[in-house]
Amino acid sequence: MKAKLTFLLLWVAAVAAAQSPQLSVSYIMRDPKWIGISPENIRWADDGKTLYFDWSDDKSLHAADPVTGKWRKVPLEEECNLAFGGQYNAARTRRVYAKDGDIFIKDMTSGAVTQLTQTVETESVPRLSAEGDRVFFQQGLNLFAIHLKSGRLEQLTDFRRGNKPAETKKTEQALWLEADQQRLFEVLRERKAAEDARKARQELLRPIRPKEYYFQEKQLDNFTVSPDGNFVLFRVGTRPAGSKPSAVPDYMAASGYTENLNARPKVGDQLPTYEIALYDRRRDTLLYLSTAQLPGIDEPPAYLANPQKKKRELTPLGMQWSENSRYALLVLRAQDNKDLWITVLDPQTAALKTIDRQHDDAWIAGPGIGFNNGWIDNRTVWFQSEETGWSHLYTADVETGTKKALTSGKYEVRFAQLSRDKKHFYIATSEVHPGEDHLYRIPVAGGAMQRLTFLTGGNEFAISPDERFIAIRHSYSNRPWELYVMENKPNAVPRQITQSQSEEFKKYAWREPEVLTFKASDGADVYARLYQPKADVKNGAAVIFVHGAGYLQNAHKRWSTYFREYMFHNLLADKGYTVLDIDYRGSAGYGRDWRTGIYRHMGGKDLSDHVDGAKFLTEKYGIDPQRIGIYGGSYGGFITLMAMFTTPDVFAAGAALRPVTHWAHYNHGYTSNILNTPVLDSAAYAKSSPIYHAEGLKGSLLICHGMVDVNVHFQDVVLLAQRLIELEKDNWEVAIYPVEDHGFVEPSSWTDEYKRILKLFDEKLLKR
Fold first, then answer.
1. What b/e sequence results for 66-87 when a residue is b if at least 16 CB atoms lie within 10 Å of its CB, and e otherwise?
2. For residue 232, what are the β-bridge partners?
3. Please, which residues bridge with residue 582 across strands?
4. Is the CB of residue 233 less than 8 Å from the CB of residue 218?
5. Helix, strand or coil for residue 423?
6. Longest Cα pair distance anywhere in the chain, in angstroms?
7. Sheet holding 328-334, edge to edge
8. Distance (Å, whole) CA 286 – CA 276
9. Predicted TM-score of the model (pTM)
10. Which residue, 147, 131, 150, is CA-closest to 89?
11. Neighbours of 256 (CB within 10 A)
């Protein structure tokens, strides 16, 4: 009997192995539709009775019943009548929204929709007044109000581009002659008196209209009307005169000509400067807010060799009014990236009061910082801060200045939403594990958190408007995203709505990579994903993958955005390679110190983490230290170059995909955070740019880059190629992709690129 059972088990295993497809680059790099299409863009109907999501090959709209879990495809004619987003009144009996450039209002009781505008101009950003009797909206440079009872349209502002027309002034000679005519002739005096009386009467009868204000060619945006309609806040931006965009040549343009694509300026180019304007409609006056009183506004960054105090330029990030229009919450960020201020404006005095100053000698960032904030009531605001080294939730009384932390610990708050009754927050945190997100409920006054979700893996949440249900987009490390729905209560069981994986995808036994930690040389715990081959095929070689974006997390338990690389790592493991995927210094998910560990030296601790990872593989998993390769794209391509140039004895081969080779040519928003600017901190750029270290290349290097990359420009590869030529290096090659931007699209490009990567590793890591 035992022999028969053993035979049966062996037979079942053999059949399963025969059915499981053998992975190849061509097989896994096909159009991703072969995997199955995951649901996306989850949103709820107003009444919370229908859950909408995009699904299937054409991303068509689908609808699901949260009670039964049954779904259907929404007919196009029905979809045309749907609209999402907008703003509710306090009682949630009305919702205003913009659709196709017009403004609509929906009665939540009857479901009736009324179109308020139908123009060739675009109307946007509709808001209901505090009383609910008016709808404010923007059209062009100006704000308008529709009085719902009468239907009257009122223009609230009269902002204009250009300069105010100059008045024609009469000469002294002309003024003397005119006065002389009045003195000499009675008929002229009578006519003038009659004309003056007519004008005075017209002025009295003329409807009150807003005063004209001219703004030359400045950029006006972020219009925010107070709920009582009396005040308007907005940004006034001045474009820099010296900023120069880059040109990216497109050699494969449909026209047959080489056409230049307009791309971003380079880091260090001049930024727009901003002022915050406050328009008082009652007084018909406009003034600009003073930020001189902000604490630390004139403090120079710590990295400067010869610091001098001067007022720093700011970028307003957000402006929100309290419901009673008494205050406005303004979030301001220093353009040198070192400070962020949570402030409150008193519109009666135009005075700004600082509620919280967030300072970082490196740069201000982190989950929710500067963007997750708002009002709880008319004197209490909420926001997020990395004050403790981790992004947490805070509240503050704007009148007393008292600040309170609602959450604390060595984890991050990654999502926060105030409940309808404003008695508690829904927050998603990484408290359970850095690679998981779970939803909790916590009182606005603080206290114990109540955990609501328990699905292990990646979770994205959408709470129904009535807060009865929670929609969850859930995935696991070896299972793509699916849609679930559950009741909004502890220990509720989620119901799976979608089944998205194709039968072909399910035939292969996709690995569940082990999420582990290893010690870095400085004692830090580094999180990573490990893919191990079976013992009978293990070849003693290893590949280390470097994720892109810098501030991104990939050693997690959810389906990765790097799903092609995930499948490639399964292929490598099948061939006997051990694969390690590291959340190096600078990655998301591990707090402020980890985030800023690369400040002023990219290619420092972020690279040493990979070197330590290579050592970990040799010591614990028996990997041959002479047979370790490294690869990655974008920031991962940059790290690959730095690895091959500055630690050439650690890595025998590397594939750098769309890599940054010289940080002075990258964009300002990302690079200036970490390296400041080339003019002020050239040493940081010299340490961090691979092109300065290319002489160290020893191993075999493959570089792949799209020629119409408007993110990391193809120029980067051209510069490095010339440098390698001048250094007389001969162990490198470049593969170019004429039709590809930064993120490749064509399956043929993905296939060609990864065939080259696999060939590189097979030839250089397996021949020893």
1. beeeebeebeeeeeeeeeeebe
2. 225, 279
3. 528, 546
4. no
5. coil
6. 135
7. 314-321, 328-334, 339-346, 351-359
8. 11
9. 0.93
10. 131
11. 7
Q: Rounded CA gap, 664 and 716, in Å?
A: 10
> How far, in Å, CA of 545 to CA of 761, rounded?
12
State the amino acid at position 259 in one-letter form: E
Which of 534, 502, 741, 762 is CA-nearest to residue 652?
762
C-alpha to C-alpha distance for 558 and 481, rounded to whole angstroms: 8
User: What residue type is assigned to position 293 of the chain?
Assistant: Q
State the CB neighbour count (10 A cutoff) for residue 573: 22
Sign of the CA dihedral with 248 first, then 253, 259, and 262 last: negative
Single-letter code of the amino acid located at 18: A
Residue 22 carries which side chain, given as an amino acid letter? Q
Rounded to 5 degrees, what angle do the CA atoms 255, 261, 262 make? 145
Strands 732-737 and 700-706: parallel
Task: Report how far residue 434's alpha carbon sits from residue 464's, in angstroms, rounded to the nearest whole number.
Answer: 26
Amino acid at 7: F
Q: What b/e readout covers 342-378, taking b as 16+ CB neighbours within 10 angstroms?
A: bbbbebeeeebbbbbbbebebbbbbbbbbebbebbee
Element (H or E) spanning 475, and its range?
A: strand 469-476
Cα separation of 573 and 557, whole Å? Answer: 19
Give the pLDDT band (50/70/90) at residue 15.
Answer: very low
User: Using 50, 70 and 90 to split pLDDT, how confident is the model at 59?
Assistant: confident
User: For tokens 């080339």, what's the residue?
Assistant: 678
pLDDT tens-digit series, residues 353-384? 999 999 999 999 999 999 999 999 999 999 99
pLDDT tens readout for residues 87-98? 999 888 999 999
Q: How far, rounded to the nearest angstrom, does the alpha carbon of residue 390 sit from its chain's CA centroid?
A: 19
The pLDDT assigned to 322 comes to 97
- In the numeric block, which tokens belong to residue 104? 């609509």
User: Nearest to residue 568, comparing CAs of 698, 657, 644, 455?
Assistant: 657
Quickly state the pLDDT bin for 696 (edges 50, 70, 90): very high
Say if residues 663 and 689 touch (Cβ distance below 8 Å): yes
Amino acid in position 253? A
- pLDDT confidence of residue 82: 92
Q: How far is CA 498 from the centre of its chain?
A: 27
Q: Are strands 542-546 and 392-397 parallel, antiparallel or unpaired?
A: unpaired
Q: In 10 A of CB 178, how many CB atoms?
A: 12
Does 13 score more than 60 pLDDT?
no
Residue 407 CB contacts under 8 Å (≥ 6 apart), including other chains? 392, 393, 413, 427, 429, 442, 449
Strand ranges for 608-699 from DSSP E: 628-633, 653-657
SS3 691: helix
Alpha-carbon distance 223 to 757, whole Å? 50
Contact predicate 248/260, CB 8 Å:
yes
500 touches 480 (CB < 8 A): yes
Strands 578-582 and 542-546, sheet pairing: parallel
Q: How far apart are the first and last CA of the chain?
A: 47
Banded pLDDT at 4 (limits 50, 70, 90): low
| Mean of the per-residue pLDDT values of the chain | 94
SS3 184: helix
| Rounded Cα gap, residues 46 and 52, in angstroms | 11
The span from the CA of 632 to the CA of 638, in Å, is 8
C-alpha–C-alpha distance, residues 380 and 376, integer Å: 5
Residue 477 CB burial class (10 angstroms; 0-12, 13-18, ≥19) = buried
Q: For residues 642 and 648, what is the distance between their CA atoms, to the nearest angstrom? A: 9
Angle between helices 172-184 and 186-205 (to 10 degrees): 110
- What is the C-alpha to C-alpha distance for residues 189 and 753, in angstroms, rounded to an integer? 89
Q: How confident is the model at residue 156 (pLDDT cuts 50, 70, 90)?
A: very high
pLDDT tens for each residue of 99-116: 999 999 999 989 999 999
Pairing of strands 94-99, 102-107: antiparallel
